[in-house]
Amino acid sequence: MSSSVGPTATPPPAGSRTGAARAPQNKGWVSGMVLFAGVLMLVGGILEVFRGIMAIAEDDVFVSTPRYVFRFDLTSWGWIHLVIGALIALVGFFVIKGAAWARITGIFLVSLGLIGNFLDLPYYPLWSLVTIALDVFVIWALAVYRED
């Protein structure tokens, strides 16, 4: 006769609610807000490149502001937007791919873009305000991301 009373099953691992093994997650791509932030970075960066090209070509869409404290030549603003926009688009691609370094770099570059758009506000007011609002959302989405 056997004196065993209960089943001889292995107990679930510590911290596990059900004891079932977790399915492996695909770490190659992101989803949710970070995906949306990465897409906004990619598209917004490309639009900033176009904005830079317009300023370098001295297009007529920009408002002339004779008494502005942070006065730069329109061509200078164009190069600033072109370089920052290209970097934001490139890092946005890596945010979409799920690179952790890209989220931190994205926060930094989008912050620079936000400052540049604020300083550029008198030259292209409506677009600068829209871009600033989108930049704030992107910074927030990248900052609150947590890996599960």
From TrEMBL:
Transmembrane segments: 34-57, 77-96, 101-119, 125-145
Protein name per UniProt: DUF7144 domain-containing protein
Residue ranges, annotated region (Disordered): 1-24
UniProt keyword list: Membrane, Transmembrane, Transmembrane helix
Organism placement in taxonomy: Bacteria, Bacillati, Actinomycetota, Actinomycetes, Kitasatosporales
InterPro entries: DUF7144
Positions of the DUF7144 domain: 33-146
One Pfam family from the record: DUF7144
Organism (species): Kitasatospora phosalacinea
Keyword Transmembrane recorded: yes
Keyword presence, Transmembrane helix: yes
